[in-house]
Amino acid sequence: MPAAELGVATPEKRRAQPTVQSAGKRRRWQNGKLEAESIVVGTWVTLLAESRRQVDRLKADVACLVTSVNRESMTATVLFPNRLSLFLQQHDGAAVRFRTETQPISRLRACKAEDVTELDRKMILRLCSVISERRGEVASNLSTEAKVDAAVNATAVSSTLDGERMKAFVSCVAKAFAVVQRDIMEKVKLWSAMAEAGFAEHEINSGLQTLEDWNKIMIADDTVFHV
């Protein structure tokens, strides 16, 4: 009697049978996909611990901020709100720079929406604290002549936008952050807001650089902080 009549799965029958996923597996896949799509620049996340080591578990307990996302590689850069991530600076010590980490998006879990405001506040306070410390260090180390040179250089940088134009630029930046109701904003959105306000590309580049030199904003990857 043929195998098919005995109820035995022939090679042809096995190939024809669809692969059946369990409801739990489908749910986990759908949840993982939705979680990945929710990870955008400016999202506060926690990391899944890589191991049971204490250092990995402690790291997983700390919220960090997504500063850029690469959908092709399914990775994101994250910034931890601690001094070890904010300690970098230029050779003259005048500017804070950020140290971010690249993580697979699959390891990121978005924080609760109700926690975002407090996390934003703590990040901005930490940035202001670091900036204040750096200013004090630089001021104590620079000679009078060096301070004059620094002032001249700062004026030269901002010369692309004259006084009134720069005032308008600062006002538009403040309005852009007010619209999103956060002090953390995606750089491309801020850029678009300035372009819609009538500023040319070279004005936006110059204006943002000037504001960063003045420590009015800080830029990390694709993220802008209003400080």
Distinctive features:
globular; 17% strand; 48% helix; three-stranded antiparallel beta sheet; five-stranded antiparallel beta sheet; single chain; 227 residues; 8 helices; alpha+beta
Give the SSE layout:
Layout: H1 11-16, H2 23-37, E1 44-47, H3 54-60, E2 64-70, E3 75-79, E4 88-89, E5 96-97, E6 101-104, E7 108-110, H4 116-141, H5 144-157, H6 163-180, E8 184-186, H7 187-196, H8 201-213, E9 217-220, E10 223-226
Antiparallel strand pairs: 1-2, 1-7, 2-3, 3-6, 4-5, 8-10, 9-10
Please tell me about this protein's structure:
- The chain is an alpha+beta fold.
- Helices cover 48% and strands 17% of the residues.
- It contains 8 helices and 10 strands.
- The protein has a 5-stranded antiparallel beta sheet with strand order 6-3-2-1-7, with no helix packed on it.
- A hairpin with a 2-residue loop joins β9 (217-220) and β10.
- It is globular.
- The N and C termini lie far apart (82 Å).
Helical fraction equals: 40-55%
In total, how many beta strands?
10
- Tell me about the largest β-sheet: 5 strands, antiparallel
First-residue to last-residue Cα separation: 82 Å
Backbone shape: globular
Query: What is the mean pLDDT?
Result: 79
Reading the helices and strands in chain order gives: HHEHEEEEEEHHHEHHEE
Which stretches of 5+ consecutive residues score pLDDT under 50? 154-159
- Residue fraction in strands: 15-25%
